[in-house]
Every structure is written in C-alpha cells, then in structure tokens.
Write a structure and sequence with these properties.
The complex is a heterodimer of chains A (319) and B (245).
Chain A (H helix, E strand, L loop, with lengths): L4 H26 L6 H24 L18 H24 L5 H27 L11 H24 L5 H25 L7 H5 L5 E5 L7 H6 L3 H31 L4 H27 L20
Chain B lengths: L12 E6 L8 H10 L9 E2 L7 E2 L3 E8 L8 E8 L7 H4 L6 E3 L6 E3 L9 H5 L6 E2 L6 E2 L5 H4 L12 H5 L5 E5 L6 H9 L15 E3 L5 H10 L7 H11 L1
Parallel strand pairs in B: 1-11
Antiparallel strand pairs in B: 1-10, 2-3, 4-5, 6-7, 8-9
The chains are: A mainly alpha (319), B alpha+beta (245).
C-alpha cells in the first residue's frame, strides 16, 4: 500500500497523544504519580497538541477536505467515522482536565473524573484508528487482532516516553515510572516482531480465486498502458526492498536506545540535566522508530487487487 | 447511511461475463468511458490526456492472462474484464465515513453520492477487486453505476436500456439482468454454465457472475479418443461395421 506521509503522521502523532493520556491516567491512579498543577497542564497540553497535529494531518489526505465534517456522520458502520467522533469527543474531558490543572482546581474527584474519562476516550480512539485498517479484509496483513493491539502498544510506548521527558524536564524524579515504561517498550517490540514474522502470510485469496481461471496464471496483456490510481495506491513495492534494514534500524532506535538510556537514568539517579537529556534522547529514538514502523506497516502491506497484476510489476522497484 | 440494506434487495441487477466469448477488444471499457464521461458521473476525467504520463479514472479494466501454461498443459489466453461486482456485502459501502457510498435497496446497485464524497479513498482500499478509482481532477471516487442512467432511461429506445458495456460488446460476452430472479435469462445462463463468484473467500457476495471457459473442441476430441469412442452414425456406421468384419 502507498505509505502516504499524511496518514503515517496522523496515526503516529494521534497515537502518541492519546497514548500519553492513558499513560498519565495509569501513572496517577496506580503508580501514585503526583504532579504540580503546572506540570499536569503541560502534560495535557502536550497530549492535545499531538492529537490535534495528527488529526489535522489526516485532513491533508483528503481530496475534498472541505467536506471532512461529513465524516462524523456514519459512526454506525464506519470505523473511520467512529475514529473522528471519538477523537473529538475525547477533547471535551481533556479540555476540562486542562482547565482543572491550569486554574489550579484542587477538587480531587473532579480531576480524577476528567482524567478517567479522557483515558477511556483515548483508548477508544486508538482502537478505532487501528480498526480503520484492521477491518479491511482486502489487506490480509492488516486484518488481524494484532493490529489494534500494536496501535495501542505503540501509542502507550510513545506516550510513556513523552511523559518521561516532560517529568524529567520539570525536575521530577522519574525513577518510579522507568520500569513500567521499559516493560511497555519491550512488550511492544516483541509483539511487533511476531507481527513482522506472520505478516508475510499469503492471505485468503490467490490469482486463481481472483479470476476463476485454472492453472498457472501469467499476466499477458496489461489492462492499461500507463500508471493508474490502483497501482499508485496499492502497487507500492519499495517497502519490501528495504524492509530488513529498516526493521533493524527501528529496533535499535525504538527498543535498544530507549531501554539503554532509561536504565542509565535509573542508575545515575538524581533528577537534573543528565536525566532530562537521557529522557529526551529516548523519546527521539522512540518516535523515529515508530515513524519507521508505521511506514513499513503501509509500505509492506499487500492488497488483494495486486493479484490481478502479479508479476506485471515484478522487478520494478520504482513503485 | 452507509449501512447495508437490512432486507435483501428485491432485484439484484448485475452483469454476467462470459470468459469463453471475450476476445479482449476493450470495446466495453471504451464504451463505458464514453458514456460515463457524459452521464451522471460526468466528468470521468483524465490527467494529461494528450501527452506523456497520462492517467485517468476508468470503471472497467480488461486484463489478459496466459492461463494453465505449465508443463504438459494446454496453454490458453484468457481475457478478463473487471468492473464493480455490486456486492451484497459491499465492504466499500460500510467503510465510507461520510455517507457518500450506498447500496440501493430496490435493485442492489452500489453508487457514490459525489456531493458527499470527501475523497479519502478508504472505499477503494476496502474493495478486494480494485473496482473503484479516484477521479484525478474531481477528487471524488468513481465507480461503475451499472449505467443507472441508461437502464431506467425512458428517453432511450427500450432496446438501448442496458449498460453501455453490454451494448458495445461485439461477441455478446457481457449480459445484463436480474440475478435475484431464477427465471431471468442471466440466472439461467449462470445455472447452465456454472457461473461463479470472484474471490468468494472475501465474503463480499458479489452479484456479477463469470462464466467459465467451455471445454475446448480439442480437449473433447482427446477425451473421446482416449475413451475409444467410435459411435459413428448412418453411412459411417455401416462403413465402420463393414470394414471391421
């Protein structure tokens, strides 16, 4: 599939923003994380910025962005519509939370309610984002339960690294949440490796089932002499050419670097400049790795329509 | 609503495509392009139409395959026209976030309301057959309408109220009719020739059917010879018996 930059940016950034909301909620509820109102406001603001940047980027993919508001209408049947509705609805408790921290509202139940509502909205949103792709039977490598799980995990991973960076920069001791974040990073990549292993599977359909013609099939006369929309959207092949190198790079940047730097921060203890630098480097490595992972998610995915073109493009690496 | 109709449509209008008759002339694709760049989906545009690197939206594509060309097999050329199959469980309809894609409950035709399409392209991704193409200039999704503006068009002569591709086919490889009615000509044809669905495993339940290639004369003769079939009749039967005695 064509790896459109607007969609890659959308899924990575929105995933990170909503993942940060879930991570922050979990850290406050279960790891006894206590933050100054200013720090809380910065965290929520960061989540809003990431989510808004991602959602705006998704509009760039539309040929008719002026009609985007219609996309909120079909939530009964369409995962894309559900994603839009859920993403926007989640902005309500998030904005409430921002006001609570920004205005220094100390009412614990109000803050907690806004926090939990935001986290649930974020969870639903990430799930819907993943289901846009996981619901497509026509792309076999996407049509599996691992896809929503991985979207959630990469969101949690990015969110965890953002949370660490913000806490470290505001001079807080991040050692209590380092281990959970490392655990999320490791689990995420183990499951991603599992996905990479299985994603090359053949899928349900074959050139024979696609045409009903028996025996070996070889494309003889192409249906069109020039490029067309189908080949531009679904005939992308560069992904398969470089995938091994890119996967290695993603694992170094996304698994090795964050784990190593966070462990260093744990050992070197004391909050300060060093911990901040380490946390920021871990975040940078993590985010770049997720961009690579997401590029491969699209570039490597094979659409069933290519069964009609099989071998017609073999050897061509320009698409 | 981009939900599918709750009750199965009364009529299931669709095409039956005879792979034994198709000669791959592309007349159906050209007739489709011509009609639909002037019909209700107009314009069906092209980018750089009269120069290099042209690309455009077509609603019908004809592939040519070399089939069964393995060792010891009789190879043949198969032409394979492909357009929207107007599926019962059309995934392109349910994924549409804006309500632009819909399936008509009255006759099962899958259409796009171009005024509501935002050009996200998700429906084209959802279709396993590659039946939808984005209009490069209009920025909205285009697809086969089964020539809904011909088949119900009372200003046309009744004989012309069929899809442009069917009317254009010089070898009668394309047939149009109601596949929900077992008595219709197309349904009878499907029953007699074992018409089949494309990619049944994708669970889209397509309406359009394809008719397989008939056993070729050569294969039939080969089989008859192998079975020692000498049922000659009339003069040759007498000659056969006379010479055998």
């Amino acid at each position: 599939m064509h790896p459109a930059p607007s969609i890659i940016f959308f899924t990575v950034m929105a995933g990170a923003g909503y993942g940060l909301v879930i991570d922050f909620c979990l850290a406050v509820l279960f790891l006894d994380l206590v933050v100054e109102p200013v720090v809380g406001a910065i965290i929520v603001l960061a989540a809003l910025v990431f989510a808004a940047a991602g959602l705006s980027s998704s509009l760039l993919h539309l040929r008719r962005p002026s009609r985007a508001r219609l996309a909120l209408s079909q939530w009964r049947s369409s995962w894309l519509s559900r994603e839009g509705v859920s993403a926007l609805v989640t902005f309500i408790p998030l904005t409430a939370l921002l006001f609570c921290y920004g205005l220094g509202v100390e009412t614990p139940w109000l803050v907690q309610a806004a926090l939990i509502a935001s986290a649930i909205g974020a969870l639903v949103t990430i799930f819907c984002t993943a289901m846009i792709y996981a619901s497509l039977r026509s792309v076999p490598s996407w049509h599996q339960p691992l896809v929503p799980l991985l979207y959630l995990l990469f969101g949690l991973m990015a969110g965890g690294l953002i949370l660490m960076a913000i806490l470290a920069l505001s001079g807080m001791d991040i050692r209590t949440i380092i281990w959970p974040v490392i655990a999320v990073v490791l689990v995420t990549w183990v499951i991603k490796l599992f996905y990479w292993r299985g994603a090359a599977g053949a899928g349900l359909s074959s050139p024979q089932s696609a045409t009903g013609l028996a025996g070996n099939l070889r494309p003889l006369y192409p249906p069109h002499s020039e490029a067309n929309y189908l080949l531009d959207e679904m005939g992308f092949r560069v992904g398969r050419k470089h995938s091994v190198k890119l996967k290695r790079l993603a694992l170094i940047l996304g698994a090795a670097i964050p784990c190593l730097f966070l462990l260093l921060a744990q050992i070197l203890s004391s909050p300060g400049v060093i911990a901040s630098v380490l946390a920021i480097l871990a975040l940078l490595g993590g985010m770049i790795s997720i961009f690579i992972e997401r590029w491969l998610f699209f570039a490597e995915a094979k659409h069933t329509v290519m069964l009609y073109y099989e071998d017609a493009l073999a050897g061509s690496t320009s698409r | 609503m981009t939900s599918l109709p709750n009750t199965p449509p009364e009529k299931r209008l669709g095409l039956v495509i005879d792979l034994d008759a198709c000669v791959g002339c592309h007349a159906c694709a050209v007739a489709c392009k011509e009609w639909n760049t002037g019909g209700i989906v107009a314009p069906l545009s092209d980018k750089n139409p009269y120069q290099a690197e042209q690309t455009g939206a077509w609603l019908n594509r004809i592939h040519g395959f070399e089939a069964a060309a393995g060792e010891g097999e009789i190879g043949r050329t198969a032409y394979f026209p492909k357009s929207c199959l107007h599926c019962e469980d059309a995934p392109c309809v349910t994924v549409c976030p804006t309500g632009a894609s819909y399936k008509r409950p009255e006759d099962g035709i899958v259409l796009v309301n171009e005024d509501a399409c935002m050009g996200c392209g998700l429906c084209a991704w959802a279709c396993p057959y590659g039946a939808r193409e984005m209009d490069p200039l209009e920025g909205v999704m285009k697809k086969c309408t089964l020539c809904v503006d011909r088949i119900y068009n009372e200003t046309l002569d009744p004989a012309d109220r069929e899809p442009a591709c069917v009317a254009a086919c010089p070898t009668s490889a394309r047939h149009f009719g109601d596949l929900a009615d077992p008595q219709s000509a197309v349904s009878k044809m499907v029953a007699a020739r074992s018409g089949y669905d494309l990619m049944p495993e994708q669970a889209c339940r397509p309406t359009n059917k394809y008719l397989p290639v008939r056993k070729k004369q050569l294969e039939r003769m080969t089989e008859q010879l192998a079975a020692g079939d000498t049922t000659a009749e009339g003069f040759f039967s007498w000659l056969d018996r006379a010479l055998s005695s």
